[in-house]
Write a structure and sequence with these properties.
Largest interface: B-C, 57 and 62 residues
Number of strands of chain C: 17
CATH architecture of chain A: Alpha-Beta Barrel
Chains: A alpha/beta, B alpha/beta, C alpha/beta
Helix content of chain C: 40-55%
Helix content of chain A: 40-55%
CATH superfamily of the largest domain in chain C: Dihydropteroate synthase-like
CATH superfamily of chain A: Dihydropteroate synthase-like
Oligomer: heterotrimer
Radius of gyration of chain A: 17 Å
Radius of gyration of chain C: 28 Å
Number of domains of chain C: 3
Largest sheet of chain A: 8 strands, parallel
C-alpha cells in the first residue's frame, strides 16, 4: 500500500493574505505558506487562484513556476473554475515529483474537467456529485460510474481519478457521516483512489474542537480506505494521526522517530 | 504476440556514496531498480567487493588465505597484497584485536595500524571496529580523526554509540559512516533518522543491516533487505535510501561448516572448499537481496563474486 | 486471485439496467467483488467476459507435479514474489547434470557423487532430488537410452534434456512411469514434442531463443491443450538467464500474465562450463530468484551445506518458526558426565547458541526443550519454557540418560533458578550470560576457575 497523500489546502484565495498576494503577484506570502505546509508533511499543494476569469492563464503559470521553482518541482493541484487556466498551468508544470492534479470535476456541469485531465495526462479529483448533494450512496455510486466511464472513454487509468465522496458538515448533517465513510469503503473495494476536503466535517465547530474531530474523521476514513485528503497540514494533531494511521496500515515503515519525518 | 514486458519503474533512487579518494575511489548505490534488474532501468554503480584483513593477522585462516599472504609480516603488507587481489574494489581492515574480551589492544596501537594500512594502499578503505560498543565509541572516533582526508568508511555506528561514532566520522572528520543494526528494519530506519538529525549528510551514510551465514536464520536477512529496498524505492522512503554494505566473511567463516576440520567430519571433505562455498553462496544471496557491497576474505570468493557481478550487471 | 470491483466493472455492459437488483453496474461489480453476488446475476454478461473472469480468478501460477512415489515433487503454485508477503510454497529442487558426450566413467562418478549428499538438517532430509540427462547433438538414440537407464536406476526424478523427437520417444519408453520431465520443446518442434509428452503422460519443458519466442511457444502449447509445462528460462548468458527467470515469474505473479504462470528450470551447468565456484554463486542466486529446478554441474558436500541451508531458510513459512527436535545434542565430544546446558527449540536460537558452544571447545550436552519453536523470552512469557516444563523434560528424558547434574540455563530466564532447584532435587543450576556471544568467554572463565 502506498502512503496517504496529504494535499495542503492553505494556498487559497479564501485567505485574505493569499488573495492579495495573487492580486499583486507578491511571492512572499505564497512561498511562506507553501514552506510551512511542506515542512509539516504535505506532499501535494493545492493552488486555488479563485475564479480568475480575466488573467487566469497567466496567473496560474506564474503560480506553478513560482512554487515548483522554489520547492524542487513540488507536485501541485490546480484549483480554479477557469479551465483554460488549468491547462496553462499544466503547460509549464514539471512532472518529476508527480502528475498535476486537476481540481475538480463533478458528474454534472464540471464533467469536462475529466476530459481536460485525460487530454493532459493528469490526475483529476472527481466529486461524486450532480446538481446538488447526492441523497444516498446509490446516487453517489451512480455519479462515480459516470465519471469513471468518462475517464476510461478518454483513455485514463482508473487510478488517476481520485473520487471525492464530498465530506459533509457534521453540525447539521450528523446522520450522513456514516454514509460518507461507507462510500469511501466502496471506492476502496472497487480499487479506486479517493480524496476530499475532510475538514468540512468540522465546519462551524469551536476552534479547539476541530483538530480533534478532523483527526477522528481521518482515522476512520483511512480505515475505510481513503487514500488522500485535502487538509491543513499545519494541524499538528491531524498530521500526527495520519502518520500513525500510515504506520498501522503498513504504508510506511515504523521507526521511533516516525512523527518527526 | 510478443511478451508484454512491464518494467518496474520507481520515482526514487538509492543514494550513491563515494568512498576513498583519487582514481581508485568507488561509488556504491545509485540504482533505481531492484538488485540486478537491469532490464527495468539504471543500476547506477555496480556492487563492489572488499577484501578483509585483520589486525590479528591470519589467526585460524585456511591454507589458501595463508599462502596468499605469504611473506607479509605487517598489516600494511597484507593490505597491499589484499589490494592486488583479483576482483578487489576496496580493502576492509577489521580491528577485532581491540575487543576487551579478546586481545584488548589499545586504541593507540590500533589507530597506528589503521594509519599504516591507509597509507600503504590507494584502494578505498573500510575500517571495522572490534564490535564492543564502548571500545568502538572511542576507537572508531580516533580512527576517523587519524585518517582525515582518506574518505574512509567507518563501520559502524550502532544504536548505543551513534552519537559518538556518527558525529566523529560523519561530521567532524568528514568520513563515511556505517549505520549498523541487526536484521531489525525499524531500527535500521531509526538509526538513519537520528544520524541525519545529528547533521550527518544522508550521502555519508551506508547501512549494515546485518547478515547471517546462509542456513543460520538467513530468511530474516532476505526479508530485511527486501523490505528496505521496497520501502526505499516503491514507497520513496528517503530515510532508507542509503546503500547497504554487508560484512559477509566474519559470519561465514565462523560457522561449523567452515570451521570443522576434515578429521572431524570426513564425509564433508575439504574444510577450505566448504568455507569458500559458504562465503560465495552467502555473498551471492546478499547481493541479489540488495547489498551494494560485500566484504570477503578468500581470494577465490573475491574473484568469483567479482566475476558474477560483472556477468549480471 | 480475487478481482477487485473495477476489473469486474470493466466487463459489465455498463447499462445500469437494474435487472440484477443493483441500482448501477458499479454497485453490482462491487457486490461481486465482495462475494455478495454471483456474476451470473447479470443477464447481459458476454461469453467472453465470463471466460476472462474465470481465467482471472484462476491461480496465477500453476502447480505441477513431477516424479513418482517418494521422488514426487511439487513445483510452482507460488502467489508472491517476496517471502515476507506470505510464503513461498514449493522449494527449489536441485538436479545434477550429466551429458551424453561424457565418458561412462565420468557419468558414473557424477551420478555416484550426487547420491552421496544425504543428510538431515533440522528435520529435513537434504539430497539431490533430480538428475538432468542431457542429450547433446549427434548422440545415437541407444547411447542416450543407456544413460537414461543408468540415471533412472538411482530412483531420482529425471529431467530429459533432449530436442530430438525420436530419441525422446525412445528414452521415455524406459522411464516414463517414473514421471520424468521431457525438457525438449522449442519453437521448431513443440507440436511433436507435446504429442510425445502427452502420450507418455509426462510434463513438458519449453525453451526459446528469447522471451518473445518462449512466450509464443508456451501460448501455442496451451492453445493445443497442453498445460503440463515447465519453462526452461536458461538463456545464452548469465545476465539473460537472470532476466528471463525474473521476468517469467514476475509476469505471472505481479502482472497476472498467466502464459508465464509455470515453474522454471534454470540450467546453471550450461552457463558456467568448468567454473564450479561460479556454479555455486549461481545456485544461490537462482534459489533466491525464482528457479523451480536448478541444474548444477555437481553436488559435493561443499556445494550442498550452504545451498540446502539457504533453501531451508528461504522457504520457511514466515508465520511458522523453524524448530529443532527436542532432545540431547552432545557437542565437542561430550559423554554422559559432561556439563549440561539447556535452551529452547527455536531454530535460530539453537544455531546461534550451538555455534558459540562449539567454538568454546568444551565438551557438553546441549539439551533442547520443547518450547513451541519460540525464542527464550517469548516462550517463557507464553509459559512454554517454565520451571515446570523444564523439570518434567529433564526427569523424563535427561536423568535416565546422563549422569551429570549440573545445568546451565539461559541468562534471560535467570528467574527460573530457584524454582528449578526446588523442582529438581540434586541439580545444581548455573545461570549463563544473557547473550550467546558471551558464551565462549563464560566457558573460558569456568574452565579457568576449575568449574568444569
Amino acid at each position: 500500500m502506498s502512503k496517504f497523500i496529504v494535499i495542503g489546502e492553505r494556498i487559497s484565495v479564501t485567505a485574505p493574505s493569499i488573495n492579495r498576494a495573487f492580486a499583486e503577484k507578491d511571492p512572499e506570502p505564497i512561498l511562506t505558506r507553501a514552506k510551512q505546509q511542506l515542512d509539516a508533511g504535505a506532499y501535494y499543494l493545492d493552488v486555488n487562484i479563485g475564479p480568475a476569469e480575466s488573467n487566469g492563464e497567466e496567473l496560474m503559470k506564474w503560480a506553478v513556476e513560482l512554487l515548483q521553482g522554489e520547492f524542487d518541482n513540488v507536485p501541485l493541484a490546480l484549483d480554479t473554475a477557469n479551465m483554460k487556466a488549468i491547462e496553462a498551468g499544466i503547460s509549464v508544470y514539471n512532472r518529476s515529483k508527480g502528475k498535476p492534479i486537476v481540481n475538480s470535476a463533478d458528474a454534472a456541469g464540471r464533467i469536462e474537467y475529466v476530459d481536460l485531465a485525460a487530454a493532459n495526462d493528469a490526475i483529476v479529483i472527481a466529486l461524486c456529485n450532480g446538481e446538488g448533494i447526492a441523497k444516498d450512496n446509490d446516487e453517489r455510486m451512480m455519479y462515480c460510474q459516470t465519471l469513471l466511464e468518462r475517464g476510461m472513454e478518454h483513455g485514463m487509468e482508473a487510478t488517476d481519478l481520485w473520487f471525492d465522496p464530498l465530506f459533509l458538515v457534521t453540525k447539521g448533517m450528523q446522520d450522513k457521516q456514516m454514509d460518507i465513510l461507507e462510500c469511501i469503503k466502496m471506492f476502496s473495494d472497487m480499487g479506486l483512489n479517493s480524496t476530499g476536503g475532510l475538514s468540512n466535517n468540522s465546519n462551524g465547530m469551536p476552534k479547539h474542537i476541530r483538530p480533534i474531530m478532523d483527526s477522528a474523521m481521518v482515522a476512520m476514513a483511512m480505515m475505510q480506505g481513503l487514500t488522500s485528503a485535502i487538509v491543513n497540514p499545519n494541524d499538528l494533531r491531524l498530521m500526527e494521526t495520519i502518520k500513525s494511521c500510515d504506520i498501522i496500515k503498513n504504508n510506511t515503515l515504523y521507526a521511533d522517530s516516525y512523527l518527526e519525518l | 504476440m510478443p511478451f508484454n514486458r512491464k518494467p518496474q519503474k520507481f520515482n526514487a533512487q538509492i543514494k550513491a556514496v563515494e568512498i576513498g579518494v583519487g582514481e581508485k575511489a568507488i561509488k556504491i548505490g545509485g540504482e533505481n531498480i531492484l538488485p540486478f534488474y537491469t532490464f527495468d532501468g539504471d543500476m547506477g554503480n555496480t556492487p563492489k567487493v572488499g577484501v578483509e584483513i585483520s589486525d590479528m593477522g591470519l589467526e585460524g585462516a585456511v591454507a589458501g588465505i595463508v599462502s596468499y599472504y605469504e611473506g607479509c609480516t605487517t598489516a600494511a603488507e597484507m593490505a597491499k597484497k589484499a589490494a592486488e587481489m583479483e576482483g578487489a574494489d576496496f580493502v576492509a581492515l577489521s580491528l577485532e584485536g581491540g575487543d576487551p574480551n579478546g586481545a584488548n589492544k589499545s586504541t593507540e596501537e590500533l589507530v597506528a595500524v589503521a594509519k599504516e594500512v591507509a597509507d600503504a594502499i590507494d584502494l578505498p578503505l573500510v575500517v571495522e571496529g572490534c564490535k564492543n560498543v564502548e571500545k568502538d565509541s572511542e576507537l572508531l572516533v580516533k580512527v576517523a580523526e587519524a585518517l582525515q582526508g582518506k574518505n574512509v568508511l567507518v563501520l559502524a555506528a550502532k544504536e548505543e554509540n551513534y552519537k559518538a561514532v556518527g558525529a566523529a566520522a560523519g561530521l567532524a572528520y568528514n568520513q563515511k559512516v556505517g549505520a549498523e543494526s541487526a536484521v531489525d528494519i525499524n531500527l535500521a530506519k531509526q538509526l538513519n533518522v537520528v544520524m541525519t538529525q545529528l547533521g550527518v549528510k544522508p550521502e555519508s551514510v551506508v547501512m549494515n543491516v546485518g547478515t547471517a551465514a546462509v542456513g543460520y536464520g538467513y530468511e530474516y536477512v532476505v526479508s530485511t533487505m527486501d523490505r528496505i529496498k521496497a520501502a526505499a524505492l516503491a514507497q520513496s522512503d528517503t530515510t532508507l535510501q542509503m546503500p547497504i554494505i554487508t560484512p559477509v566473511a566474519s559470519e561465514t567463516w565462523s560457522v561449523k561448516e567452515s570451521l570443522a576440520e576434515e578429521a572431524d567430519a570426513p564425509e564433508w571433505g575439504s574444510r577450505e572448499e566448504r568455507g569458500i562455498s559458504m562465503e560465495i553462496q552467502t555473498a551471492a544471496a546478499d547481493l541479489v537481496s540488495g547489498s551494494n557491497a560485500v566484504i570477503l576474505r578468500h581470494p577465490q570468493s573475491v574473484a568469483t563474486i567479482a566475476k558474477m557481478i560483472k556477468e549480471l550487471a | 486471485m480475487a478481482l477487485n470491483g473495477i476489473q469486474i466493472f470493466k466487463l459489465t455492459p455498463k447499462k445500469n439496467c437494474k435487472e440484477c437488483g443493483c441500482p448501477t453496474c458499479m454497485a453490482f461489480s462491487m457486490k461481486v467483488a465482495q462475494g455478495a453476488l454471483d456474476i451470473s446475476a447479470c443477464p447481459h454478461m458476454s461469453a467472453e467476459a465470463l471466460e476472462s473472469l474465470s481465467a482471472a480468478t484462476a491461480p496465477p501460477m500453476k502447480t505441477i507435479k513431477v516424479g513418482k512415489g517418494d521422488a514426487e515433487y511439487t513445483l510452482g503454485g507460488e502467489t508472491v514474489l517476496y517471502r515476507h508477503e506470505k510464503t513461498f510454497v514449493s522449494k527449489t529442487r536441485y538436479a545434477v547434470s550429466v551429458c551424453s558426450d561424457m565418458d561412462d566413467a565420468t557419468i558414473d562418478a557424477k551420478i555416484d557423487e550426487a547420491g552421496k549428499v544425504d543428510y538431515d538438517r533440522i528435520g529435513e532430509q537434504m539430497h539431490v532430488e533430480m538428475l538432468y540427462v542431457n542429450c547433446c547433438e549427434g548422440t545415437a538414440a541407444d547411447r542416450y537410452v543407456e544413460i537414461v537407464k543408468k540415471a533412472a536406476a538411482t530412483g531420482k526424478t529425471l529431467v530429459l534434456g533432449v530436442k530430438d523427437v525420436e530419441i525422446a520417444k525412445a528414452a521415455l519408453e524406459v522411464c516414463k512411469d517414473a514421471k520424468p520431465i521431457l525438457n525438449g520443446a522449442d519453437a521448431s518442434n513443440y507440436a511433436e514434442m507435446s504429442a510425445v509428452a502427452t502420450a507418455a503422460g509426462v510434463v513438458l519443458g519449453v525453451s526459446g531463443a528469447n522471451l518473445d519466442e518462449l512466450y509464443d511457444t508456451v501460448a501455442a502449447l496451451e492453445k493445443a491443450g497442453n498445460k503440463e509445462l515447465v519453462i526452461d528460462t536458461t538463456g545464452a548468458t548469465i545476465k539473460e538467464t537472470f532476466e528471463n527467470t525474473v521476468q517469467v515469474r514476475r509476469a505471472a505473479l505481479k502482472n497476472e500474465d498467466r502464459t508465464f504462470g509455470y515453474p522454471s528450470i534454470v540450467n546453471v551447468s550450461k552457463l558456467t562450463k568448468d567454473d564450479k565456484y561460479m556454479a555455486q554463486a549461481l545456485a544461490s542466486v537462482f534459489t533466491m530468484k525464482y528457479g523451480s529446478i536448478v541444474v548444477l554441474p555437481e553436488m559435493t558436500y561443499a556445494d550442498a551445506l550452504p545451498l540446502f541451508g539457504l533453501r531451508q531458510n528461504v522457504f520457511t513459512d514466515p508465520q511458522k518458526p523453524m524448530k529443532v527436535a527436542p532432545g540431547i545434542y552432545p557437542l565437542n565430544g561430550a559423554d554422559e558426565n559432561s556439563i549440561i546446558i539447556t535452551t529452547v527449540d527455536f531454530a535460530l536460537t539453537y544455531f546461534v547458541v550451538s555455534g558459540e558452544l562449539e567454538r568454546s571447545g568444551v565438551p557438553m550436552n546441549l539439551v533442547i526443550n520443547d518450547a513451541g519453536g519460540l525464542s527464550v523470552l517469548t516462550s517463557w512469557a507464553a509459559g512454554k519454557f517454565s520451571s515446570g516444563s523444564i523439570a518434567k523434560f529433564f526427569q523424563e528424558e535427561v536423568e535416565p540418560k546422563l549422569k551429570c547434574r549440573k545445568m546451565i540455563i539461559p541468562g534471560k530466564v535467570a528467574v527460573l533458578k530457584g524454582d528449578l532447584e526446588a523442582k529438581l532435587p540434586g541439580w545444581e543450576i548455573i545461570v549463563a550470560p544473557r547473550e550467546a556471544v558471551e558464551l565462549v568467554k563464560f566457558f573460558k572463565d569456568m574452565q579457568a576457575n576449575g568449574e568444569l
